Amino acid sequence: MGNRQSAYEEVISLFDQLMKIMPKFVDGKKAILDMKDDGGRNWRQMEWIGFWFEFFLEKNLIPVLGGTRGPTFGTTQFDFKKKFVWDLKAHPSGAKNLILNDQIAIKNCVQSENGLGFIIISGATKYDNEKRDFKKWHDNLKGGTSTYEKDRVARGAPSRRRKISFEPENLNALWFDDIGEINSAVKDGWLKSFQTDMKNSNGKPRPAKFQFNLGRVPKNNMIAELRII
């Protein structure tokens, strides 16, 4: 069983506190401005919901429950550590796959920290209008079009429509006790590789990540589930 029971007890205490303070509706513009005004690191990011969740936990839970930012492996820093390390993920309801971190970083963390968990918040999202008004607002706030965006246009790649709001619905906790559980998940087919052989705009290879389908996780690994609404 490893640390599964202790990890369960820790994440339930996190869930209990989150339930007391979790907003029913998160407006994208307000969330981005809150991160920017409070010195948040990632207010410029397009996928703002996941970064808002990290910011929200760091601002509201660490002062109450204790803990710190998580450890770093390579270029990957995990989001939160109390007794155990947890990474935070946001997942739009209805989306099939959820992308996790760099595979090597995940395995190194599991080995050195005696397990690793992922706290996943899922919920309903609404999207930008046809005129891309939200994107224009965010680009203007950032001071103009980013280098990444200019490169996308040059490549002729389509622009993803931005999410403009988020309504939290569920919290889940995924847990891996050891490397053996990760290997079993891959063998069983519910944990898969993502962005293998993909490259960044500068031509350098992207590190392979893991992805999984939230609905296919065995109960042994999905140690906690909580309906917010």
Description:
The protein has a domain at about 5-135 and about 160-180 and about 220-225. The chain is built from 8 helices and 11 strands. It has helices at about 5-20, 30-35, 50-60, 60-65, 105-110, 135-140, 145-155, 180-190; strands spanning about 25, 70-75, 75, 80, 85-90, 95-100, 115-125, 165-175, 190-195, 210-215, 220-225. Strands 1, 4, 5, 7, 8 and 11 form a 6-stranded mixed sheet that branches. Strands 6-10-9 form a 3-stranded antiparallel sheet. The chain has a two-stranded antiparallel ribbon with strand order 2-3. Strand 4 and strand 5 form a beta hairpin. The chain starts with a helix and ends with a strand.
Write the SSE topology:
Layout: H1 4-21, E1 26-27, H2 28-37, H3 48-60, H4 62-65, E2 72-73, E3 76-77, E4 80-81, E5 85-92, E6 97-102, H5 103-112, E7 116-127, H6 133-141, H7 147-155, E8 163-176, H8 179-188, E9 191-194, E10 209-213, E11 222-227
Parallel strand pairs: 5-7
Antiparallel strand pairs: 1-8, 2-3, 4-5, 6-10, 7-8, 8-11, 9-10
Helix pairs in contact: 2-3
Shape: globular
Strand content: 25-35%
Radius of gyration: 18 Å
Query: What low-confidence regions span 5 or more consecutive residues with pLDDT below 50?
Result: none
Sheet having the most strands: 6 strands, mixed
How many helices? Answer: 8
Number of strands: 11
Mean pLDDT, to the nearest integer, reads: 90
Q: Sketch the topology as an H/E string, one letter per element.
A: HEHHHEEEEEHEHHEHEEE
Question: What's the N-to-C terminus distance?
Answer: 31 Å
- Helical fraction: 25-40%
Structural classification: alpha+beta
